[in-house]
Please model this.
Amino acid sequence: MIGKLTGTLLEKNPPAVLVDCHGVGYEVQVPMSTFYNLPATGAQVGLLTHFIVREDAQLLFGFGTHSERQTFRELIKITGVGPRTALAIISGMGIEDLAQAVTLQEAGRLIKVPGIGKKTAERLLLELKGKIGADMGSKSLFTNENQNDILQALLALGYNDKEAAAALKALPPDVGVSDGIKLALKALAK
Model:
């Protein structure tokens, strides 16, 4: 019903914002990725929205990008994942990290998000497989299987996701697994 709001940003109280659209103030729940990219209070803002009507409430959720809104819509289709949990996932991981976790089927990355247990994480991975990632327009780090193997080796050695991803970006695209691991370790040692 309400697909987009454009107006003046009146208040910013995470995770909610108040947007004045020609005299009507809309309270909108936004993920932190959108919140951090909002302009200063008093400036014009445009948000893509998703409107949910329940028996006890009418809720409006806002997003800065189409991919955030589409990911939110995919998440709320999953049994046991409500709008607030979906916002927590998008806020806690980001779209690209979520797509990467689904591609690699890594439940451990989802469990780090508050409110997500092991069973919910496994259900998310199962139901999101093939629905987010390339279709969402997010960039995958993996151009081939070798890079995936290199990433898994770095994670197994104790490097975190960001360190491993940064090391992968510095590698040549067609590097072999053993050479790639050696180069990545050299880059991480600096």
Notes: The chain is about 45% helix and 20% strand. The two ends are 53 Å apart (CA to CA). Confidence is low (pLDDT under 50) at residues 134-143. Residues 177-189 form the longest helix (13 residues).
